[in-house]
Amino acid sequence: MRQPPRLTTASGIPVADNQNSLTAGPRGPILLQDFHLIEKLQHFNRERIPERVVHAKGSGAYGTFTVTHDITQYTKAKLFDRIGKETDTFVRFSTVGGEKGSADTERDPRGFAVRFYTEEGNWDLAGNNTPMFFIKDPIKFPDFVHTQKRDPQTNMKSPTMMWDFWSRAPESLHQVTMLFSDRGTPDGYRHMDGFGSHTFSMISADGERVWVKWHFKTQQGIRNLTADQAVRIAGEDPDYAQRDLYQAIDRGDFPRWDVSIQVMTDVQRVEWEKRTGWNAFDLTKVWPHKDFPRLPVGVLELNLNPENYHAEVEQAAFSPANVVPGLGYSPDRMLQGRLFAYHDAQLYRVGTNHQHLPVNRPRCPFHHQQRDGAMTVDNGGAVANYDNVNAFGTDARGFGHGDPGWALEGVAGRYDPRGHDDDFTQAGNLFRLMTADAQDRLTTNIANAMRGVPQEIRERQLGHFAKADPRYGAEVARKLGVKG
Questions:
Q1: How far is it, in rounded angstroms, from Cα 416 to Cα 313?
Q2: CA–CA gap between residue 347 and residue 359 (Å, rounded)
Q3: Mean pLDDT (whole number) for 389-410
Q4: What are 464's strand-pairing partners?
Q5: Which of 136, 206, 244, 306, CA to CA, is 20 to 30 A from 380?
Q6: What angle do the packed helices 470-480 and 455-468 form, to 10 degrees?
Q7: d(CA 478, CA 127)
Q8: Which runs of E-coded beta strand occur in 79-130?
Q9: Of residues 327, 95, 77, the one with CA closest to residue 202
Q10: For the residues 335-361, what does the mean pLDDT come to?
Q11: What SS3 state is found at 66?
């Protein structure tokens, strides 16, 4: 029979007694010199790193991305350089607004963050299960999230706060329509699509840039819960989505997604924006498939569960700033804000050396000049920690992204698009795409969520629904008992 390992302190020192504290006599007080006791209590007090402000509750798994179609005309990124090439991945799914103990079936967007461990470093595509978002400017993000959290006086969720914000931000209507539709309560993580949501870019070997949007289409098929089902499951099994994902992978039923892109050249962007009046970089908008069809790229498969949730899922630290040569950003305001905010959040939440942790560590050779700080694992050895092109270190010249940049125009200032942008047509299009019974569920969900909200806020929001589609506004008003 195999002997269990010998219990030690974190420093490897054998523990003499793990059942009884060191005391001054049989009934005396505990002595401070009982280091094993002190170490256990200290570590216990620190077992919880600060939870994420958003996406606090999540599930994760490892997998592979396999290229099935040639897109090398658009990008020089090496992970796409041949059909059949595989890249290791880690994916984290999450709810957005709830705390770590919240239910998996709450009406909420779902995070869909994919890390690709490429030969040129980690590429993080941190998106959602929706192709749009509530706001288009990051300066509003803290305010928006505060309305989705808890009232500072009552410490309870507040429909008044939510609808007050949305009613004053008509650009949110498109995402609100998606949120209160059937897709607002997906049946687990395997049966939902994923999106990069933002406009990103690709750079070819010739230095040409195109704008792209990323899509992950579930091979399991879309499946959603009704509002009643979601509430019931929240009480019966609040970890429903996590259990479903873990058990599916454990039994070998590996979930897969078809990965595709929409591509827009800058010439097409100028023409399309002129024709539609929409901003291609506006996160509250989508690119219609009839204008920009999806082009297949590959398949994402999840096939390995983590062994340690805290080490691999909770401490996974994504940032959309992590792109590899051949991939790039765009002028999307929300993306620009996230390029700073995500990495900054991980520095606070996990620590200054969070990239040293196995789940975050690149799987290719790397060298940087960052040194020291908490949780230093690999401190760079004897290589100089400063820019020493002419000495013994690394030379960054001639490497890197080779990003061609994009043209800038206009005077620096704070530009308010509200009242000028069309925030209603795409929301109306989404409503009109739904079947009659889906429209009925949407308007019922909204009406139920708005009960008890002050009249002024209801009237303001009903006006937005009516601008998107008169039937949309009329149905919500009828179910709220508002006279026309």
A1: 38
A2: 15
A3: 61
A4: none
A5: 306
A6: 150
A7: 35
A8: 86-95, 110-118, 121-128
A9: 327
A10: 91
A11: strand
Distance between CA atoms of residues 63 and 87, nearest Å: 9
- Per-residue pLDDT averaged across 285-299, rounded? 98
Inter-residue contact 15 to 9 (CB < 8 Å): yes
Binding residues for heme: 342
Say if residue 397's pLDDT is above 50: no
What is the distance between the alpha carbons of residues 351 and 338, in angstroms, rounded to a whole number? 18
Beta strands in 272-332 (DSSP E): 295-304, 327-328
Q: How many residues does the chain have?
A: 484
User: Does 55 participate in catalysis according to the annotation?
Assistant: yes
- Taking every pair of C-alpha atoms in the chain, what is the biggest distance, in angstroms? 86
**Cut 0.85: pTM above it:** yes
Residue from 128, 305, 353, 445 carrying the catalytic annotation: 128
State residue 233 phi and psi, 5-degree precision.
Answer: -65, -35
pLDDT at 157: 95
Amino acid code (one letter) for 454:
P
Q: Which pLDDT does position 402 carry in this prediction?
A: 66
The helix or strand, by DSSP H or E, that contains position 65, with its residue range, turns out to be strand 58-67
Range name among 177-181, 299-303, 310-314, 391-395 with the lowest pLDDT average? 391-395
Across the range 65-81, mean pLDDT stands at 97
| Mean of per-residue pLDDT scores for the chain | 91
- The vertex-268 CA angle with 264 and 273, nearest 5°, equals 105
Considering only CA atoms, which of 83, 82, 109 is closest in space to residue 95?
A: 109
Closest CA to 272 of 259, 283, 281, 261: 281
Token digits of residue 87: 């890249």
Task: Give the residue ranges of the annotated binding site.
Answer: 342
Distance CA(458)–CA(451), nearest Å, equals 9
Residue 122: beta bridge partners? Answer: 117
> CB neighbours of 25 closer than 8 A, spacing ≥ 6?
none
Domains contained in the chain, CATH given: 58-132+185-356 (2.40.180.10), 425-480 (no CATH)
Taking the C-alpha atoms of residue 233 and residue 226, their distance in angstroms, rounded to an integer, is 11
Output the pLDDT for position 111: 97
Among 293, 245, 289, residue whose Cα is nearest residue 94? 245
**Identity of the amino acid at 121:** G
Identify the residue whose tokens are 């992978």: 249
Contact 301, 61 (CB under 8 A): no
Given the residues 18, 43, 45, 55, the one annotated as active site: 55
